[in-house]
Sequence to fold (643 residues):
Amino acid sequence: MSGLLEVEGVSRRLADPQPVVLVRDVSLRVDRGEFVAIIGPSGCGKSSLLYLLGLLDRPTTGSVRIEGRATEALSETERTRLRLRHIGFVFQFHFLLPELTALANVALPMRRAGLDGREAEERARALLAKLGIEAEGGKRPDRMSGGQRQRVAIARALANDPALILGDEPTGNLDSANSARVVEEFRRLAHEERRAVVCVTHDMEVAAAADRRVHMVDGRIEGED
Amino acid sequence: MRGFLTLLGISMAHLVVRTRQTLVATVGVAVGVGFFLAVSGMMVGSDKDFVRTLIDAAPHVIVRDEQRAGARQPARDAYPGAAVAVAGVKPAEEVRGLKDWPAMLADARALPGAIAAPSLSGAATLQFAGRTEAVALNGIDPRLEGRLAKIEASLVGGRLLDLEARPDGIIITRPLADRMGAKLGDTLVAVSPAGVTQRMRILALVEPDAMAGFYAGDNTAYGLLRTAQVLFARPNVVNQLHVKVADPQAADADAKALEARWGYTWESWQERSRDVLNLLVARRVILYAVISAIMLVASFGIYTGVSTSVADKRRDIAILRAMGFTARDVQTVFLIEGLVVGVIGAAMGFALGTALLEALSRAPLTVQGKPLVIPLERGLEQYLIAGAASMGSALVAAWLPARRAAMVDPVDILRGAA
Fold:
């Protein structure tokens, strides 16, 4: 049976400005219900691997399959559509659109996916409620705390009910209490909602909370526990 | 549609955040559109008024007893393929006047909605109280001529139809009457080159007034056709036909077709006014060049605004792409920004232009003591041109930065932010 995410022999090289290998021959499988942490020193290629998993970048060699679907031959538009429906991103910095309210930020991917405004808003409100920040729905990001913003970002990542959640240092900018809440949320998403969660992190508490820890050094997977 | 509304929402949010820049760009477009409407309203209005005067004032086609080229030599027809040189040819002296003019007149009247009238024109001298003036005397059918050309509007003291009641009547211009010291009702002596003398009574005066209509010059006079034929000793002769057609724009084609059939010179109003019409085209070119320059300057505001927006929103572009928005979506967001500025600017410009045109129409201007009404064109066409120019320049101005936004690599931005 195939995993939700299957990576086979993926490498990513850059030719400019000077030749560099970001990711070397990485193979990885993540199933539904798993919370996987990718750890390693700065510059080891963790984020580069995450962008490949999230179809934001294309591997030089190797393949990335999502829910059994090969992605190498897909056009940029098809990859974007796949990302819209099946993948949710949470970044270190919340990256919310500053002009929009929390509610509008969360509703945005749903509206892009074709939901009408009212339905998108109702679902966005429900997501915010689930994350305990319903009261912040009408606020713009600059009126919220760092923890609230990151929870809005998680709600946005869940907007189109994706099977795969990718986190790029999601707790890197949070205090320990907020960090713990985010980690707990990721565990819940994996274990209760049966999503696959992959987090790139330096945070040992996040790593400790994950089901699996994948160690990367110089673009390679050195092992996992 | 929902997708478009989502993108529109993002664009509007960007524009609202940068209120001042948006306002400056919008006002730039509004001023461009407003002045386009005002200037083109005046230019096109005056052009149309001028052309209308050209069309209405004189017959659409005037047929003269002249040939455009000399008679064809029979030797050329006898040897069609040969190189023929005919030396010492002197054209035969023809009796002036249009031959078979009743048939030509009938043919001209057969044109859709056409009115045609015969005329005999020639040089004569008028004498009054010891003063003598040379005039071009036009013998006309007053009933038909009044419907053909806008003479009636320039007459004071009488009407064209008065000539029918008084075969010895004459209509001269007011400046000519002043020079001769003659007044309405005075009797002049007309002398033709044939030596015929006739006493003629002034029935009306032509007032030179640019606002009223056609004015052929101080030394033009009008009399009854029969009277002119007697004066010029050319009974039953006509040397001009005046034709008015239902579609003035078709006058040139009609004239060419009839000239090919009948010979003689069939001169349309377009041919008579070719130089003036060419000048009007040149004026239009200048107008649109100036307006294009104004719109170009206005589009710089949009370009700057959208460029700044793209530069400020690189991180947002990356996150939109990560969320599942395509490069085309991103491009559309910034194109919409330019377009919204163009649409609002055009709407404001329409209001400004309409107000300027209204102010121009009420401007208390006078020429030689008479009130001057500026002919203004306020047709839908001018608004459509201004709107299209505004949209076009907004789209072109926004396209370059929007394209740059679409080419932003989200990975570069996210890697840099991490």
Observations:
- Helices of chain A lie at 46-53, 76-86, 102-112, 117-130, 146-157, 176-191, 204-209.
- Chain A touches chain B through 37 residues (CB under 8 Å).
- The mean pLDDT of chain A is 89.
